[in-house]
Amino acid sequence: xxxxxxxxxxxxxxxxxxxxxxxxxxxxxxxxxxxxxxxxxxxxxxxxxxxxxxxxxxxxxxxxxxxxxxxxxxxxxxxxxxxxxxxxxxxxxxxxxxxxxxxxxxxxxxxxxxxxxxxxxxxxxxxxxxxxxxxxxxxxxxxxxxxx
Length: 148
Ligand code: IDP
Ligand code: MG
Hints:
The protein is an alpha+beta fold.
């Protein structure tokens, strides 16, 4: 098991529905630990840069509109196989295809307004964490864990 970090965004639809806390719980319940968080209303240029891989696709412009419509909660999470684990917790892009119990199945509206983003590889996790956070904004828990 690799100790990894992944970038998660609680998207505007989920914060608007007030299910942000439940989404955070889903990651905590799946052995992941919060290492960074930022409440942020993204601008067009930021979203265009973040989702550059999708430029030109038919869903790109409405995606930019959606992601700039209201604030997001950008977070870095850490844990064993965090990138794959988080994608499992999140579920398929289209909530209609997402497995029962996944965040998107529970909280997404449709395949655009789908509650949450999760990095899809080690390379994109590094890029996406650096997109939102400086090194000083990521907390290194090391031996600072409270034990019962
Ligand atoms: P992912 O978020 O599951 O990794 P991607 O294919 O990377 O999915 O797409 C990025 C985001 O673009 C999705 O989370 C969703 O908000 C939006 N999106 C992707 N495919 C569609 C589509 O077919 N229709 C509308 N929006 C889409
Ligand atoms: Mg993706």
